[in-house]
Amino acid sequence: MDRIVPVMTPLITDRVLNRTTLHRQLLTHRLPLTVPEALRRLLGVQAQESNAPYLGLWTRLSGFRLDDLTAAREAREAVRGSTLRGTQHVHAADDYPWLRPLVAPVLLRGRQSAFGTRTVGLDLDELARRGAQLLSGRTMTRSRLRDELAPHFPGVPPEALGWSAQAVLAVVHPPPNGCWRRGGATPFALAEEYLGTPMHDRPDPARLVRRYLAAFGPATVADMQSFSGVRGLSEVVDGMGLRRYRGASGAELFDLPDAPLADADTPAPVRLLPDFDNLMVAYADRRRVMSDAVRAKVCVGAMIAATVLVDGRVRASWTIRLRRDEAVLEITPLEPLSRTDRDAVHAEAAALLEFAAPDVDGRRLHFHD
């Protein structure tokens, strides 16, 4: 539960909170950053779907091309793996060694929830040792690793072995897996070998708090924990000397001492965000970017729809269908849009369609009423 703070704590209005969030998320204007620079600023981008990181970076960076993220991953400047909330993200390569050990308990909780009853008695330390031996100097798919682990752990369901190994080992998924329009079997490589650097043996949760606030603040402790999956951050935050604000609801918001707030009048251009974009899942309380009624339409079960920001708030959702000779982008308003707003959404959506399907003649854009 968010802590209620005294009235003498400075109040931050909903409008300033919204504009500050958008500014830190590179959504008030596109910046000419490299892929690693952007990933560091954003603390990574969601990568549950292969195309999402590309679309999320395009909407935030000027001059971003489809090849840029692929090239960064091939150069091992960016890396894909399970981290925040136990889900797939693409991070700057130098962020993974400190972040992955910090979220290790999150992955272990997820493993226990999914496979705990099917793996009673499984020695996770032995699984990690065997898995590391098998992966040393090699890249293997989850199914291949599962099959090679199975003889060493008789009686354990093979599928549970493959997923459990992903939880107990710091692994990354080399390209082309997870690149633009590329799916298929997930390859595993030991992160330390792939990146050529050891994982941190003393992960620092205060580092996570600082990086989160730089990308998403001001925010509550509940927001930080919801975004990362890491527990026990209240005690960490209390010892960091952070700036404190009172939100419109009375909740206590934290921020970096030297981090400026955006002006309430900062323009917020239309932006299209992909499925599972971190802006949509970065907060326990998401009212800074959408109403509760809109959230019920956007966040359905484990799914997070692709969204359209109009004046800094979610006002529509969108989908895209890419085929060899056809690309169709459809927009569904979730709240009434003025003619001016519809025109601005149409222009931004057309630009995204051209980015995603540059060589397709049959590009079509459709607005649902």
UniProtKB/TrEMBL annotation:
InterPro entries: AlkZ-like. Pfam families: AlkZ-like. It comes from the Bacteria. One of its GO terms (molecular function) is DNA binding. Keywords: DNA-binding. The keyword DNA-binding applies. This is Winged helix DNA-binding protein.
